[in-house]
Amino acid sequence: xxxxxxxxxxxxxxxxxxxxxxPLGRSGIQISALGFGCWAIxxxxxxxxxxxxxxxxxxxxxxxxAIHRALDLGVTFFDTADAYGTGHSERVLGRALGKRRAxxxxxxxxxxxxxERTRVxxxxxxxxxxxxxxxxxxxxxxxxxxxxxxxxxISDAHPDQAARLRDLCEEFVREGLIRAYAWSTxxxxxxxxxxxxxxxxxxxxxxxxxxxxxxxLALCEESDLxxxxxxPLAMGLLTGRHTAxxxxxxxxxxxxxxxxxxxxxxxxxxxxxxxxRVEALRxxxxxxxxxxxxxxxxxxxxxxxxxxxxxxxxxxxQAEENAGALAKGPLTxxxxxxxxxxxxxTANS
Length: 349
Description:
It is a single chain. This protein is an alpha/beta fold. The chain is built from ten helices and 14 strands. It has one domain: NADP-dependent oxidoreductase domain (TIM Barrel). Helix 1 links the parallel strand 3 (about 35) and strand 4 (about 75-80).
């Protein structure tokens, strides 16, 4: 079984190591301080009622080139899920990594049901039997013999169910199928259930400059966990590429946003109020020659030394912009305080 931790990744002459790495919680695994989220490269998929769940059409070859570019720029942590593109994201990531699998840390998730043929998501299953079936299927799609970080993808699972799945993950560790596990949830009390497991090493949760998560960050500090941050760019609002009134393509989840996705309006694109908040932060975020997106990532690193943002990508250009944030580092404490003042919230503890 491969046990490379990613600390000696052979990622080309432009790789950035050392100060740009951090531990994945209490696991002993070292990863890049920036991860890449692989939701978007899964392409289009939907719920049975037609609700889009992807980010629109993708070019698989461009996705592979973007992953290779990320590797060359020192990114060693890639986060996907079996449901993204109903298996397609895992297949593309596995193909792109190929012989470089040992250079990286791969995270995936389970809990959602889907049909790969029709690209339709059709429910959830929190049973132990499904967890094992899902794990074996993910190993096959990724072309690997182990998952580095296996994450429960049912954010509101009952704590009793979660405790059973936590214990099952310990079995998976003993069997060599996974190295560590986590829960993708925005509920700190639920996340604490998983944190009781010896090989639980992270919580994946939403975190961006517009949507702070103090309770989850406190749990990560108390339990020695990594904070893996989904939606670090607020579903694209923090890239500067959205304007009010501009509708998104039909296959993009933001074109008909579900309740849990604020900041966008069906048929009308980005919400003007949210865009106003972004504009108010522009001067701070673009300091030191950063792009708006790089500044948003810099705030996350300043928020806690345990954070690992995982922005999504679909192109080489996006991969380069995101990875470029590593060289510029976190915002200063004064800048973080100014962000809190502008947004009208109390200082972060």
